[in-house]
Every structure is written in structure tokens, then in C-alpha cells.
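subagent[fold] <- orchestrator: predict structure for attached chain, return C-alpha cells only, no commentary.
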Amino acid sequence: MANTHGNAREGGQAGRTAVASAEAAPETDEDLPTADWRVCGLVNALARRIETHVREHATALGLTAPQAVALRELTGPLTLRELAQRMSCEPSNATFVSDRLEEQGLVERRPHPSDRRAKQLVLTPRGTALRERLMASLSKESPLSALSDREQDTLHELLTRAVVR
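subagent[fold] -> orchestrator:
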């Protein structure tokens, strides 16, 4: 995720404006720089809508957006390095977020079963319950809910090919 610290109202408005601009854009190649620019604009607008969606639902549950992302990614025990990779952030950021989650009693650090130097983050029962509420909340009115499951799978496949390329 990109910046998740801005004003939710600003992010929401920016996302709606970008989508409206993309929808109103001319459809001829000579009026647009390239198909890449059109896709880039839509991907950025979608990312902003998703960030706003996550931030709003996280706030309603007393979390920051990065804390919500961390909870979403904690599907099982993870090292801080693994969590940072899944959150697409620096390990120091993942440490900061996990420290806050630990202070709230949502996660705990446990010894790694095969690496004595490492610790794993594990959801507590309270963290598991909050994660379930978060996931249920995020699924409501998701920015991608206008797409069928099959369309979402296709979009995922296409974006993965573009990113991995």
C-alpha cells in the first residue's frame, strides 16, 4: 500500500475525481499519450480508493491503516521480516506497527521453532477476533465488489503478469 496517513476525505475525493476524469477521458489514441497512461491512472485511482476503504474501516475498529494491513496479513505465525515483505514496507515500519499491536494485546512475540535468533508474531485470541471483524468489515462495499469473482480473478492475473514482467 502507498500512503495511508492522509485525510480519509481527501483520499476519497481524489479517488472519485480520478475515476471521473478517467471515465470522461477521450477514447482515441491521438488524444491520449498511451494505453499505459490510461491504465496507470485507473490503477492509481483504484489504489487510492482501496487505501481510503481500508483506512475508514480500520478507524472504525480503532486501528490505523498499517495496523489493519498487518492484521490482514497475519494468517499464521510470521517473522517481522516476513510481515514487512507482505506489507510492502521496511522491517522497521513492521516493527513499529507490531509493537503497537502488541501493546493493544492483539499479537504476541514467540520464539521461532527452528531459528533461535528470530521471533514470530502470533495473533492473540483478541487479535484473532478483531481480525475476523476487520475482514468482514473490509469485504463490505469493497472497491472491487462491482466485479464478479471471475472478473476479480482475471484482474488479479493480468496485474500479476504486468508486475512480474
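orchestrator: received. Logging for downstream: The domain at 8-164 is CATH 1.10.10.10 (Arc Repressor Mutant, subunit A). Strands lie at 78-79, 107-111, 119-123.
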